Automatic annotation (TrEMBL), chain B:
InterPro entries: HPT_dom_sf. It comes from the Bacteria. It comes from uncultured Anaerotruncus sp. This is Hpt domain. GO terms for biological process: phosphorelay signal transduction system.
Amino acid sequence: MENSKKLNPTTRFLIYSFIGLLIFSIIIFSLLGIYMSRKSKKAVYEIGEIYMSGMNEQMSRHFETVIKLRFSQVYGIVSVVSTDKIDKELYEELVYRAQIRDFNYLALCSTEGNFETLCGQAIYPLNPGPFVDALLQGERRVAVGVDAAGNEVVLFGVDAAYPMQNGEKSIGLIAAVPLEYITEFLSLTDEGQLMYYHIIRSDGSFVIQNSNTELQYFFQQLQKQFDSSTNETPVENSVKKFGDALKNRQEYATTFDVNGEERQIYGVPLPYSEWYLVSVMPYDALEGTINTLSSQRMFITLISCASILFMLVLIFWRYFSMMRCQLHELENTRQMALEASRAKSEFLANMSHDIRTPMNAIVGMTAIATAHMDDHKQVRNCLKKITLSSKHLLGLINDVLDMSKIESGKLALTTEQISLKEVVEGIVNIMQPQVKAKKQSFDIHVEKILSENVWCDGVRLNQVLLNLLSNATKYTPEGGVIRLSLYEEQSPKGEDYVRIHINVKDNGIGMSPEFLEKLYDSYSRADGTRVHKIEGAGLGMAITKYIVDAMEGTIEVESELNKGTEFHITFDLEKAATTEEDMVLPAWNMLVVDDDELLCKTATNELKSIGIKANWTLSGEMAVDLVVQHHKKHDDYQIILLDWKLPGMDGIQVAKEIRNNLGNEIPILLISAYDWSEFETEAREAGISGFISKPLFKSTLYHSLRQYMGVEAENDQVANQIDFSGRRILLAEDNELNWEVARELLSDLGIELDWAEDGQVCLDKFQKSPKRYYDAILMDIRMPHMTGYETTKAIRETNHPDALSIPIIAMSADAFSDDIQHCLECGMNAHIAKPIDVSELTRILKRYFQQSYF
Amino acid sequence: MNLKDCYLKLGGDFDEVLGRLQRKQTVQKFAYKFLDDKSFNLFEVSMEKKDYAEALRAIHTLKGICQNLSFTKLLESSTVATAALKENDWNKAIDMIQQLSEDYYQTINAIKEYKKSQEE
């Protein structure tokens, strides 16, 4: 109701204009129909008139011909019979001539108008006056006469002066034929014709009257007009005009109403007589045609009107629905825009709250610290809290910056060679305090990761994982379980790629389906009431999604309210071209003890792949039993891997138990995803030989186990202890001071350093060097003569055997993503920002030395 | 006057540089070397000659040295000047000369003072 009342003004306008158009077109079409009917009626009338006039003309010609023929016959008689013959002979001759010309009556007319019959019955003209007058004037004339029996005949009178019996000279010779002669000849009485004819005299009386008497009234009126005695009644206009025309012997056409039907009347004077041929055409015949025509036209007009209207309706409707659709879309877009702006303002409100909270802490703690300058403990405590708050604040701001970068499309990925192991280890280290603070259990599964080294933007990958994991801890209540699992499979992108699956699962508060829909929208976070205490910008998932998309990965989420959430991410990453170390260990017997079956299985698989025969069990008690059993069979386990957290007996207790039974010979290693510094002393006392950190990558297992297996340990402990002696590096650096700093730092590592003062020198030195003389080139970017970019390109294009393989590492004060990208595009392998950080430099050098020549 | 005071005076981060270079002697050695570095001089001359490409290189080098030695204050002004030159904003770079010169001589004077105190 409300809706229909408040019809959109546009819609109302459309409806009104449509109705207007409808009415307008109906009126126009009706007018058109009526006008056309009128016009065609008129045209038909005109055609009728033309037709009638033609017919009448033809008829009068015909009449003339017939009459002329007869006249010529009569003249023929007159011409062959000379007037000077004696009476009797003359008459016989005349009669004879007349009879052979098919006249059955012949008479002579006296000056007084008396007829002297020569043959046939006596005949009197019906209207002798004009006839005799004409003869007297020497004209020929036709008239109708009757004999004694009442038969009507046609009289043909011509000028002829024959002696009459009374001695006078006649004024004319008159011959006659029966009236039928004319009527038949002219087919005046034929039935079934469209028209019929009357022949009347100039006074309106009939000469030949058609059997059709419907016009009697008309002729009566006509006769009345000529009757001077009855002058009182005014006659109808048409009749009067007709009468006038008749008098003046003019052609005339008119119509006359008979019993409501129209008749067209057409009069034409006939020659050689005072007669007038009146043809009558009943209009009903014509009218029928016209009516059919006009009704058909009306019908067709209406149909075309209707079809045009139908088309209009169709178009209008289509347009209308399109417009409705557009309006609808517009409304949707508006809603979305409103929603977005609402989310942004909500976000601002949240943000200002979220920013204020750590800011308050910082301000407050600073004030407290200032007030207690001398109380070191207090100040330290304050500083710790300030640090925490600052970090939190920085995180928030970083998120916002990332988001604004994403929204302006400026977030670029820097693909570098990373180790998945390092990334995951790093993340586990970062997550440990959070997980520990909430007393959650943190399971890490690494299955079948063969390609630990891949090309990927490590920083962004870290960001994704950290975001998912910190969300998991955030939204999982104390004591919950969080699981991170990784596995790889073949990538559809080809052999050089590997598909890494990452699963992050928790049993936290979960998400509602409604929230899942806008999970990746910016500025949204789980509904306020449930998670009021949880801080965050609400940008994490949007950033995560963007990064995953940018890495051409996929992210899926399954979540159920109050049950938990599982994220599943896949990336297709390019394998780094590392020479796989041959990771094989002696075929020792080994026991893995963990309450997590999946971990046991994956760990034993990994162990098998490096040559170790491994068994697993799920509880500490079982483990002790197994160890004792094997001992009795003299088939001792040579290494035992124990989880720290176990149901019932924990790892430390199990270790104690085993040591009690078997002594100190077997190395027992503790697996832990947690920082073991807290329980390290306790563990060492209980007889734990060492620790292995989760995740259990193949390389983690290999490197941790080999030291207990008598295999020579690798010297990869801490960066500074690495001996790079014998390595030779070419350093391109135009500034002496910078060069000396670098030399100072690198010579500590045993590296021999060659100095190139600029890009050109660097290129020359490299070209002159023997094969494998330099192990790497460190390249400054901004140098005179040749920049680092140019030098690198030039080096890569030389014919030197190491031209393509030698690692070139940029060292520059420009540490923007674009600069790094440019370095890599020019053919450099990595980028180190100045100032030189020894451990960072060592890490990178180690990677490239390993890769190329180890 | 010790090296830390010297860093304080020139507006640098001693802890940071020590963290990286690890030995006080190294830091001191490089700080002395900085007295002989010609980058700033080259920058000034190039700016005068309006050779901005050379000036950019010089100031960029100075920036690199400051990063290596954690001369934070001079690093900041040289970073601004580098950015200005990179963006071809000559006027801004010229405006920066004053600030740079102040920071440079503050650094140089602090090191000289320190050197003097050590020699005594």
